[in-house]
Description:
The structure holds two protein chains of two kinds.
Chain A: E1 2-6, H1 13-26, E2 30-33, E3 41-47, E4 53-57, E5 60-64, H2 67-79, E6 83-88, H3 89-97, H4 99-125, E7 131-134, H5 143-149, E8 154-155, E9 163-165, E10 168-173, H6 189-200, E11 209-213, E12 224-226, E13 241-243, H7 247-256, E14 260-262, E15 271-275, E16 278-282, E17 293-300, E18 305-313
Parallel strand pairs in A: 1-2, 2-7, 3-6, 7-8, 10-11, 11-14, 14-16
Antiparallel strand pairs in A: 1-17, 3-4, 4-5, 9-10, 12-13, 15-16, 17-18
Helix pairs in contact in A: 1-4, 3-4, 4-5, 6-7
Chain B: E1 11-12, H1 24-34, H2 37-45, H3 57-81, H4 88-96, H5 98-135, H6 139-145, H7 148-197, H8 200-215, H9 221-228, H10 252-259, H11 275-323, H12 339-346, H13 350-368, H14 370-384, H15 403-422, H16 432-454, H17 456-460, E2 468-469, E3 472-473, H18 474-494, H19 509-535
Antiparallel strand pairs in B: 2-3
Helix pairs in contact in B: 1-11, 2-10, 3-10, 3-11, 3-18, 4-5, 4-16, 5-6, 5-7, 5-13, 5-14, 5-15, 5-16, 5-19, 7-13, 7-14, 7-15, 8-11, 8-12, 9-11, 12-13, 16-18
Amino acid sequence: MKIFFVTDLHGSEICWKKFLNAGSFYGADVVILGGDVTGKAMVPIVQRANGTWEASLQDHRDTLESEDAIVEFEKRVMNRGYYPIRVSDQEYVAMQEDEVLVDKRFKEVMLDGTERWIAMAEEKLVGTGIRVIACPANDDMFEIDDLLSGAQVVETGDEDHPIQLGEFTMVSMGWTNPTPWNTFREAEEPELAKRIDTAIAAASDPETTIFNFHAPPYGSKLDNAPALNPDLTYVSGGQAIRPVGSTSVHESIKRFQPLLSLHGHIHESKGATRIGKTLALNPGSSYEEGILQAAVVNIDEKKRKVKNYQLVNG
Amino acid sequence: MAAIGEAPALFLRKATGLVKGWSKFDAFLYSFMSVNFVTLGLFFSLSVIGYVPAGQVLPALLISGAFITCLVVTYAGLISIMPRAGGDYVWQSRVLGGGIAFVLAVTGWWFILWYWTPIYASILNVEVLQPLAAFTGMDGLLTFLGKDIGLFTICVVTALLAGYLVSLGMEGYARIQKVCFYLGVGALVLVFLVMLFGSRAGFESAFNEEAANLFGTTGNAYRDTIAFAGGDAALPADIGLTPFFGESLLIIPFLCFWILWPNWGSTLYGEVRGASDFKRVMSGMMWGLWVTIAIAVVFLLLASKFFGWDFFNAGNVNFINYFYAYTDSPGPTPVWNYPPMLVGMFFHNDLIGALIILAFGAWFLGWAGTLFLSSTRVIFAAAFDRILPEKVADVSERRHVPVWALVLMLVPSLIVSAFYAFTTVFKTLILDATLVIAVTFLGTAIAAMILPYRKKRLYESSAMARYKIGGIPLITVTGALTALFLGYNLYKWLWPPLSEGNLYAINNADSLLFMGGMYLLAVIIYVVAKIVRKSQGIDLGAIHKEIPVE
């Protein structure tokens, strides 16, 4: 069985399209998006009083004078993982002043975006025999869970819903240890450990179990992130690196020893490591550049072993 | 509060990774310590200008600075296009292919660092330990440090120190580096003030007296130093700006040993960013480069005023000639006329002299950690790409130390150090240490030049796509100018052969064998890895193949 695993696409449309093509490209039986499906930013395209549209991307202010120009701009925005929104001058100012309006709009665009992605998957993969799995994680609001679980081709899983991959069981955990950003699915380590225990209860045999835990194990070098000051600026120009993974995840891998443990969350910490017998991988993420970082894992089903693996930049 | 008509700003939600950038000073600090004026500049680049008596160092410095500015823009551009990628190896892999990238990256960021270990050790020896031994009257130690076994011992100490600093992690080291910066700059300011307000006659007299006290010289050591170097006729004329080109250009390949590295280390970049981040990355490196050049210009003018240009160059030439075994004697003084030591002598007080040397030691300590840090990153990246065995990326769980990566650095470093310490020919290959990294940078400059055309989508999605000169992408222009600059230096280093008078002493059989051996080793590792991985069902060529979008 060949698994193609990616993580942290954060709304990047180009990465999602590559993800849907990855099964046939790499000959994978199943393509998995481990977590963090949705984007982090909205880019307002503001209609001015004179009828023209204005927007800023990457610190550059654009005036968009035709519908074609707006569509082209929206495409650029979506490829970076942001959501373009068309608003009037007044709407824009109102949103600047009211967080509730922003949250509401975020929810709308994220759900729309996820629905569009599901539709693309259905169009692309129905009848191909390639399974596609997308799981929510800490940066995804809870509302997308229902959308994902209601989809036909796209499967999803969380701590209560393990996924069978042949005779292997994939246990998923989108919750993470606390971050400085106070995101949707965070828990202190003791609570996270309990959630993990609940999830693992669905798996019986370590040799046929795969962990899809968004948070990487603490101190595993899959969890190295630049240290931050309290004001969220980098310590020492970004040169200071700290392990920021979860101790509960580390402990659970050590204890249970699954065949494979797949992680994400820390985009800059691409890598592979062994924790006891378990191969743990974090393919990292370069979603904004449209590069699909991934792990291709070949599993020998008879021997119940990882035959080989490769971290790729598709 | 927003107002109608303002440039529309992004709406961000709470999400992991949304950092707010970093202080420009921190970015400057790392770059500034990498183009280290005291360790790299004084030890070699500014010590060898006496070998080009008809050239002028100031124009060479300014011309180099202009071209290295292009290198800075090129690297900042690559960082903005492919952030968090890990530097030269990944940039080159994506644009030029995995094989070329592996060979250039491991030779430039790993193998040649083995040779930098004894260079670091030599700097520690002649800039810190020997002057300290002299000021503290430890003659036995001074004699030991001047011997081959003394140098080898310092090599071992340096390798262990660099390994320890890696194990400390960059966060701990960054704190040390900051303290070293303030201490080192404070000492430099003090020395500059002495050089500014002290007279040359006063220095000459102090040098003669203290050289007699510390080293037992007799007569006029100041004049003897100049005479030993061949006298004024053999030394550069007064410092100035003419010729701006011509012979002055010959100094540039020497300067690269020191000022080619403002880009050392800066590979990070935040998320949801724009052109302002590109400018911030660039300005950190740019300040590091140009503040260093400004310090060097001030120093050189003060050296000419206070030491006397002929004496300054004579002391350096005598040291270099002896260090590289071109002469049998070091001249009137048995140690290098290290400028902070000379200023220390001006005080006629050994304690003050020793304190100045110790404070200048901060320039070494704040820089020594860079020796192995980059190498471990490249080793990890190659292991993740399955070119090297998985094991070499292991990190000790208890101490978080990259054990195997350090072994792969330390053991060969000590072997190379032994060759360096106990043979004369190995010491003269010093510019190999620059050349091999320059070749790696050349690969990156070429990758940057063609990136907008070979990786169009990647380039166009970045903030860099907006910067153009005459319709040509800025990164293509600066990449080309960087390649031109590096190409000039490579040509000068390698042509003509040493037997026909090569100034830089590295186009000879020993040097070519040494460098060729490293490239061959890299090629062998890659080919073996490709064959072994293929037998395991892994195609190394697939690592950077782009998945179709539609």
